[in-house]
Amino acid sequence: MVFAVIKGKNICTPEGIREGFVSIQDGVITGFDTNLPPHLKREAIDIGDSVLMPGLVDPHVHLNEPGRTHWEGFATGTRSAAAGGITTLVDMPLNSSPVTTTAEAFDKKAAAATGQLQINCGFWGGIVPGNDKEIEKLIEKGVLGFKAFLTHSGIDEFPNVTENDLHKAMPIIARHKLPLLVHCELTTPASSQTENNERSYKNYLASRPAAWEDEAIALMIRLCEQYQCHVHIVHLSTANSISQIKQAKEKGLPLTVETAQHYLYFNAEEIPDAQTAFKCAPPIREKANNEQLWQALQDGIIDFVATDHSPAPPALKEVESGNLMKAWGGIASLQLALPVLWTAARQRNIPVAGMAKWLSTNPAEFSALKKLKGKIARGYSADLVVWNPNKKFIVTADQLHHKHKLTPYLNQELYGVVEQTWLAGELVFDKGNFPAPNKGKIITLDTP
């Protein structure tokens, strides 16, 4: 039996930040104690004043393998995740080739991941027009839920669904009590009329107005109520929808919501023209809007924060041309999930415990992992992160393990240095080193 004890002054337990000892046996947390026998104290790994927190769970990651591994892949993506304190991620179905919309495609995805995972990885299945007959086959394979787009995904093989498509898919998903994750933008031709300056961020922002998102969310709330299907709104960027989301939750509808770090850290007023590293969809909006997102997160209307890590080669990001209208919309940020959120949170006097709630506990519960991940408590997986909230660093390309280093966080000064990442009681990241490579496993609904 493999046994270990971690001693710390700032252990993030469900009861709050406490000093004590966390015992681990065979990859599982066996207890938290404020005192231990002398011989166990001597053997304890002392992390001092650093924070011990449940490993991060990121349910919104684009790893793109197989087929687009030159964008990102399981090896580089999960390595960067481990370096950022993430112990479980869930991979999106659309950027691989084939897209994960059939059982056959799922098998190819799982085969590509095998032997390459630095951390644990689950998968979402995709909903596209005409694949409703594949939904239960994908469930049998072990997908944790499904993802759909209401506007063009950027990938031609993954077309957006219509309301009619959702009427077919949602009863099946509801019957199996799985979530349907939805990219909520309803494109209307009239709102895409903007000035002809493709390098202007103001122009790009105007080309994807908040109304697109608000109307799409209203549609999904209506369908959520009709079918009692768990609907999850991904990367909420518009504060206009907070009220309707709040009302839906107060009615008891099975609705959850995430936002992303970039909507909480950056503001449109500060984004220079032609800087395509900032392009994402929906776009980063104005400061007044984003402050309301912060308040909704603190009020529990927004459930958690996920990166939507979606890198692409520099040519696709139109780095040289600066064409924001043409560039791939996606932000590379997986490794920086914790320090970015913490840097912005500490400016608002939000305590460290908020990081555990928004980056670990709540996303684990959403991803059907609530009995396994996201808490430092007896019986939970010993997936842990050790980090120093008081240390700061400047983001440089050579620190990043993503396949492509282009990110809007380059040269930003961030607080929160990740020192160690533990996966099932084994140290997989240790101050820049990876002492136990490829220990990650594929997570399915049947994972014990």
Automatic annotation (TrEMBL):
One of its GO terms (molecular function) is allantoinase activity. It comes from the Bacteria. Belongs to the metallo-dependent hydrolases superfamily. Allantoinase family. Belongs to the metallo-dependent hydrolases superfamily. DHOase family. Class I DHOase subfamily. Catalyzes the reversible cyclization of carbamoyl aspartate to dihydroorotate. This is allantoinase. Pathway: Nitrogen metabolism; (S)-allantoin degradation; allantoate from (S)-allantoin: step 1/1. The keyword Metal-binding applies. Residues 51-428 form the Amidohydrolase-related domain. Keywords: Hydrolase, Metal-binding, Zinc. NCBIfam families: allantoinase. GO terms for biological process: allantoin catabolic process; purine nucleobase catabolic process.
